[in-house]
Design goal:
The chain is built from 13 helices and 9 strands. By secondary structure, it is of the alpha/beta class. The chain has a single domain, classed as Metal-dependent hydrolases (TIM Barrel, Alpha-Beta Barrel), CATH 3.20.20.140. The strands form 2 sheets. Strands 4-5-6-7-8-9 form a 6-stranded parallel sheet. Strands 1-2-3 form a 3-stranded parallel sheet. The chain is globular and about 55 Å long. The termini are close together. The structure holds zinc ion.
Length: 339
């Protein structure tokens, strides 16, 4: 079985995005949000069948851990109420996709984060999504300001209510920023990769996993710059008098395979223990084109992983075992189906 740990609903029916624009306009004018539009099951089916489902089948994966479009989370827009309504609408839509295609999609939620707001509403939305909608994790935005970095580091007690709820529900988070409101940082080219790298260094500097030994976090996009600079991070851990990274961070942190060329995947697997790598493609997402050097889609990451010629045990770990370990509620759902 092949599980893609990183997929977003980037192809939602257009009413969804239109409502978001209207919601933000209403907020700017001091008005109440409009009511959410009707979206039919057929519209949802069509948006999935022609996109994610088709590509998943063509590329040979079986299922996707599926979350709302990350760049559209826009936690820096509106206020906490606006983020709450938007997160709920996005998560309910993911639940409908998972309900229509239960063999293929399982939900991960967007959180109603807002700059400066505490995380009570986010913990409550996570609980709703896990207990009522059958979701198996969340996307946690380390920078709800959209590129201004006004929140404390992920190791700060500010974040603890989320971690407590995640541990209580036994679900992980993918550390995932949203759009960039800072013109210095292109969203997917700089802001995403910066955030992945930043989160990892925060984990080195802090001692988060001493307080939460069961907490699990996935750093996407292959861990940002971390694998390439692994020696730097090992050296900094040593200079900061921290334990080796294998004990200090890597019991709790995994990377995905959203690296869009073969040399990058080769390096990821050379440097990072195979038990810390989850197959992911972020499809349909950040880089949608075809690589003229290979003739294949950049985000067809299964090709690169297959080309590594991993032995059977390692391939099983990367393609499904690690995801089932990091997302135990996914494992339970699959076990219940005899998988
Ligand atoms: Zn993503």
């Amino acid at each position: 079985m092949i599980i893609d740990c990183h997929g977003h609903y980037t192809t939602a029916p257009p009413q969804h995005e239109t409502w978001r624009k209207e919601q933000l306009s209403a907020f700017a004018e001091g008005l109440a949000s409009p009511s959410y539009p009707a979206i039919t099951d057929d519209e949802i089916r069509e948006s999935i069948e022609q996109n994610q489902l088709r590509l998943l089948r063509e590329r040979g994966a079986d299922m996707t851990i599926f979350s709302p479009r990350a760049s559209a989370m826009g936690h820096h827009l509106g206020d906490e109420r606006v983020s709450g309504e938007w997160a709920r609408a996005c998560n309910d839509l993911i639940a409908r996709v998972a309900g229509l295609f239960p063999q293929t999609f399982i939900g991960v939620c967007q959180l109603p984060q807002s700059p400066g707001a505490d995380l009570k509403a986010s913990a409550a939305e996570l609980e709703r999504c896990v207990l009522e909608l059958g979701f198996v994790g969340c996307n946690l935005n380390p920078d709800p300001s959209g590129g201004m970095w006004t929140s404390p580091p992920l190791t700060d007690r500010y974040w603890y209510p989320m971690y407590e709820k995640m541990c209580e529900l036994d679900v992980p988070a993918m550390v995932h920023v949203s759009a960039s409101a800072n013109p210095n940082f292109h969203a997917t080219g700089a802001h995403y990769i910066n955030a992945d790298t930043t989160a990892f260094m925060q984990f080195i500097q802090g001692d988060l996993f001493a307080d939460f030994p069961e907490l699990r976090l996935v750093i996407p996009h292959g861990g940002g710059a971390v694998p390439y600079h692994w020696g730097r991070y090992r050296g900094l851990a040593d200079m900061l008098k921290k334990p080796p990274l294998a004990e200090h961070v890597m019991r709790n942190v995994s990377f995905d395979t959203c690296v869009y060329h073969q040399p990058g995947i080769n390096l990821l697997f050379d440097v990072i223990d195979v038990d810390n790598i989850l197959f992911g493609s972020e499809m349909v997402g950040a880089v949608r084109g075809i690589d003229p050097e290979t003739g294949h889609y950049f985000d067809d990451t299964k090709r690169y992983v297959d080309a590594l010629d991993l032995d059977e045990a390692d391939a099983a770990a990367v393609y499904s075992g690690n995801a089932r370990r990091v997302y135990p509620r996914l494992d339970q759902a699959l076990s219940a189906r005899g998988l």
